[in-house]
Every structure is written in C-alpha cells, then in structure tokens.
C-alpha cells in the first residue's frame, strides 16, 4: 500500500504554502471555466436540436394546411443566427479560441514555472490532511 501522494502530486522543494494555495485557486478557476464550457456545448446542442425541431414543426404546419404560417416561421426563424452573425457552433469556437485556450495556457504555464508542471498539488495535500491514514478506503492512491 502507498502511504502518500504519487510523485506527480508532490510539492517540489522550496515551494511555499502561498504558491500552492494560489495554484490551487487557479486550478479551481480552470475547473469553473471547464464547467462553463460544458454548459456552452450543451447550449450549442440544444440550439441545434431546437432548430431541427422547428423545421419539423414547419413541415407539420404545412402538411396541416397552414402554408402561410409555415412559410413565415421558416423564412424568419429556421436557420436564424442565435447571435448577430453566428450560429451556436461559432459561439463555441470563439469562446474556445479567445478565452478557453488562453486560460488553459496560462494555468499550464504557471504550473510549469512554479511546481515543475505538477497538477493538483493543493488537492493532494488536502487529501493527505483529511484522510484517515491506515484506514480502508482512505488510501493515498490505488495499489
């Protein structure tokens, strides 16, 4: 049994508590950005699904004899941009290129510069502090 974090989660010598705390907060912020990105992808998928359903509704309206209403909806709403000049995939692409990738690059760069690229040092230390050493299901890592 291993009674401590693996090497990729150990604080390098000379790294301060404040540095580990700051990198932990930076990692936490990146996790929030990842979550926001997931919501953005869900938004993208729901927008696409809604547009396809709208097309089905237009077809059903036309089949039911309501051609003018179907034409009005089809012309004005089917395939419409959700934001000026953009469908949802373009919003996702812009977010990824202008924010997400930049955020990831800075988080990685800070870890590279300050803790030899190690990840989750703050969390690994928190786990060591909170777990009950020697107790089943409180192991530091898998065997």
What would you say this structure looks like, in words?
- Helices cover 66% and strands 0% of the residues.
- By secondary structure, the protein is mainly alpha-helical.
- The protein has a domain at 12-46 and 84-130.
- It is elongated, with a radius of gyration of 25 Å.
- The N and C termini lie close together (6 Å).
- The model has no long low-confidence stretch (mean pLDDT 95).
Task: Describe the structure using short key phrases.
143 residues, mainly alpha, 0% strand
Give the topology, please.
Blueprint: H1 17-63, H2 67-76, H3 88-115, H4 121-130
Task: List the total number of helices.
Answer: 4
Q: Structural class of the helices, strands and pairings?
A: mainly alpha
One letter per element, helices H and strands E, the order comes to HHHH
Q: Helicity level, as a percent range? A: 55-70%
- Please describe the biggest sheet, giving its number of strands, its sense, and whether it closes into a barrel: none
Please tell me the overall pLDDT. 95
> Overall 3D geometry?
elongated
Extended strand count: 0
What portion of residues belong to β-strands?
under 5%
**Cα-to-Cα separation, first versus last residue:** 6 Å
Short description:
The chain has 143 residues and is mainly α. It has helices at residues 17-63, 67-76, 88-115, 121-130. The chain is elongated.
């Amino acid at each position: 049994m291993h009674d401590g974090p693996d090497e990729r989660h150990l604080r390098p010598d000379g790294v301060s508590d404040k540095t580990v705390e700051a990198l932990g907060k930076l990692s936490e912020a990146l996790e929030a950005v990842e979550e926001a990105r997931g919501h953005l992808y869900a938004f993208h998928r729901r927008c696409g699904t809604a547009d396809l359903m709208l097309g089905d509704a237009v077809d059903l309206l036309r089949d039911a004899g309501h051609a003018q209403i179907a034409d009005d909806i089809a012309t004005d709403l089917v395939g419409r941009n959700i934001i000026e000049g953009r469908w949802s995939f373009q919003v996702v692409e812009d977010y990824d290129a202008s924010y997400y990738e930049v955020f990831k690059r800075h988080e990685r760069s800070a870890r590279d510069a300050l803790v030899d690229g190690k990840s989750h040092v703050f969390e690994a230390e928190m786990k060591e502090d909170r777990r009950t050493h020697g107790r089943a299901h409180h192991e530091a890592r898998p065997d």
